[in-house]
Amino acid sequence: MSHPAGTTELTTSLTDDEVLLIRRDFPALNQQVNGHELVYLDSGATSQKPFSVLDAERSFYEHDNSAVHRGAHTLAANATELFENARSTVARFVGARENEIIWTSNATEGLNLVAYGFSNASVGRGGADATRFVLKAGDEILTTEGEHHANLVPWQELAARTGATLRYIPVNDDGTLRMDEAERLITDRTRIVTFTHVSNVTGVINPVETLVHLAHAVGAFVVLDACQSAPHRALDLAALDVDFAVFSGHKMLAPTGIGVLYGRAELLDALPPFLTGGSMITTVTMESSGYLPAPQRFEAGTQKVSQAIALAAAVDYLTAIGMDRIERWEAELGARLAEGFASLPGVRVLGPAADVHRAGLASVDVEGVHAHDVGQFLDDRGIAVRVGHHCAQPLHRRFGVTASTRASAYLYNTTSDVDAAVEAMGSVRSFFGVN
Description:
With 435 residues, this protein is α/β, with parallel strands linked by helices. Helix content is 37%, strand content 16%.
């Protein structure tokens, strides 16, 4: 594997020439789609994988495949060491301790794990240490109007199970949070404040520090959806002072089937587990069971060993290039996308103005053309984008649309990729006969 972009000491942005070298590490990008060179602008949904990640997973199965934490033979010991080393690598990457990293199948599972932990505490599970998580009628859970469904539906269910009330911070016309409403809504009744770090629709970067301060001032827990930030920017969860956070491997060069739940150690050790069974227990009798501390407390059953090892390889790849450089490059690409789309007649960019700092993505509504038709038009030209509501129906409803077309860039995209998408978008309305 090459690391053409330099080291983590460099804080300058990437360049097109460096990105072209990076692309050589990604076999899926070296192909044609519908007779055109592939332009992959759907990393907000899932990222492509470099050789080093593919090799790491294959190497595990070829040489070290065994169950972890369960055997005394050499392969079992090797597998366990690789598995736990992967945890250490990911922990360092996000500013956490090893016992604060829980392997999940994806970020959605992580959010459900936390929500069900609160629910289990609310019905008396977990003992005295878990009483801090008990919810009841009159308590409030606060989210935002801009959330992915994964950070909305679990809290709706938690409210229904406990009698708590779910409220939300509305967004402005440009998709930014109404912080005046946040200050009003976060009260002594607020028990949980949960929100996305970066919007998967608008690219808005939410004010984490301010929201954490407001939440902790009233004793509320903070849950951060870092799915669109962990792959794209340096992240220090301990410094951000959030209580829980989630992200997914498949959005950051790793395979599907692996996600991460971060939680402050003292909270994880007190939170009642969600999934129960083997490998997460101390003593089991026919009447009751005792549970291990985190992380094993939340890792029942056979684990995602090869995927965790591959995620660590992805983290190593990103670290070698430098997260600061990746963030700067994607900010340039995001601005180029937004500015290019905004310049086209009949194309509306959802979210902040093109000159406002955003993540490396932009979603648009094309007047007179359904998003699915826009996506098909671009796909015919080899350009892969996301269409639909991006699992964020309330936010689309706020913008007055049912669906949008999203282009999302990553470290392997060039300015030429962006320009190709803008050029193709400029031909959509004329192709469909829309004046």
